[in-house]
Amino acid sequence: MHPIVNQVTQAILERSRQERDNYLSRIQRDAASSPDRGRLSCGNLAHGFAACDQADKDTIKLMDSINVGIVTAYNDMLSAHQPYQDYPEIIKSALRSVGSTAQVAGATPAMCDGVTQGQSGMELSLLSRDHIAQSTAIALSHQMFDAALMLGICDKIVPGLLIGALRFGHLPTIFVPAGPMPTGLANKEKLRIRQLYAEGKVGRDALLEAESASYHSAGTCTFYGTANSNQMVLEAMGLQLPGSSFVNPGTPLRDALTRFAAEQVTRISGKTPDYRPIGKVVDEKSIVNGLVALLASGGSTNHAIHLIAVARAAGFFISWEDMDRLSQVTPLLAKVYPNGAADINHFHAAGGTGVLFKELLSGGLMHPDALTVFGNSFGESCVEPQLSDAGIKWNSTPEHSLDPEVIASLDKPFAMEGGLRQLNGNLGRSVIKVSAVAQEHWTVEAPAVVFDSQHELEARFKSGDLNKDCVVVVRFQGPKANGMPELHKLTPFLGVLQDKGYKVALVTDGRMSGASGKVPAAIHLSPEACSGGLIGKIQEGDIIRLDARTGVLEVLVDSDELAARPTAPAPIEDDNCGRDLFASTRALLSSAETGATFLFDEQKALAALNLSY
Fold first, then answer.
1. By residue range, what is the domain housing residue 93?
2. 322 and 441 share one domain
3. 3-state class (DSSP) for residue 456
4. Is 32 exposed, middle or buried (0-12, 13-18, 19+ CB in 10 A)?
5. Mean pLDDT of 168-190
6. Does 307 map to a domain?
7. Residue 365: in which H helix or E strand, if any?
8. Count of domains forming the chain
9. Per-residue burial over 291-310, b = 16 or more CB atoms within 10 Å of its CB, e = otherwise
10. The pTM is what?
11. SS3 for 183?
């Protein structure tokens, strides 16, 4: 193992030892005391299978049979989740063939950030993650189940399902993907049309045609945003069948993988000798494997928030510093848009997750002995499924990338370190994704242009007032302020300014996520403006220095002057689109660096990580 990877892993384990021990004790108690079907009353059990057909009822009555709870995030508005409509019947059929049963235990919310981007509804997006976790817990609380299957792919949905599943850590659990849509309009061309629209050079009809050609069918969006990063992380954490993430929906192999996942979860249930509860699969090695895969692939910055909350659900405290240290020794081995021209289908064709993991394992950057839901350990995950007459055949992945322009080797990486860095300075702490940013743009020192909403920037851009070197500051976008929406409305405008030759950067207490592009962006700034962060004291014209090389983010204003300045008042926004129903939830959210969650005590995390404001 690489010494830094080992050090980070051990540091996570040591600072989390008491919390992790408490968690393991709890899931052990749950496994021993939760009323399995044999301990349910006759009335409980009758209610539990009342809607099943007689054959399933007869099987469920056999207390040594395995009943699998399905938690689904299906709706037919999300392209990525529409294929899940038929999954329950595929799963039930597969399980009946091995003498087991399945029931849809419950459903969770599943909103699409692509639909709500730049709209009021986006302010519910991050909040939905914790509600999904609660919905998952409600679904599993019926305690009719010996194992669980999670149907979810997109942004906040997978982290929410995972947090909820980890609270039932005694249940073996497998995540079942649906795969990406086939390749459409090239991402580079889509970005070009977006920038032309921002400049007023093409109309809305051309923009809509380009967007529709990009997002054109059922399946996950093909760029490497949070949804596809979720799949990468799940495989790296051993929670999904190897090589299954990026098989297109509606194909025979996709359906065969769904059936195999259903059968596999019965093989690792508590009623078999190979019991693998999710609470033990997700440990410090699994978490580090997920982080390393994310960094090596240039994945979504949303996981700088989500994985902190996921780890906490399993009894671990992780930090941005952990991610930064791992990033320094993890080379960038994948170029998938926005980090390159390829899409996720090209990545899969080049060898996919198996080739990437094989490279990382060969360099000692991932833990080969981590427990997984398939095979004896993670070291056996470098395989890919192939359809045969007998079902799924597992073949070893190619020894080397089939396209070095998409997946590189350790000998010739795209960059010597991963795509994420921590920034520190008098403004607080933030993260920056540099994998898509050319190195000549890693350092920007320029006057601040201050906004309290992403919607204010367009008018100043169109007026020409931003045709200069500048650091765009967008504040009151943190968890407590408005639920921390993504700010992708800014990207085309800032990209145009950078293309004109200006030095441009973004500083915000909001999010940019997996589609963070070519402009340097210091995001997730903590403490946020609503919590007294100094970003709330920045004034127009203040010089801000962002240096991704040295990890510095600071406003070059005398500390006494900063202390004397009042914090700007938070903007007053209409509580439309249902946002008023979540006002109390927003007030409970922790900082971005402690997971932006209302599910866990923030002070405990701050103390464990030795952080202070």
1. 3-33+65-182+217-329
2. no
3. helix
4. exposed
5. 90
6. yes
7. none
8. 2
9. bbbbbbbbbbbbbbbbbbbb
10. 0.94
11. coil
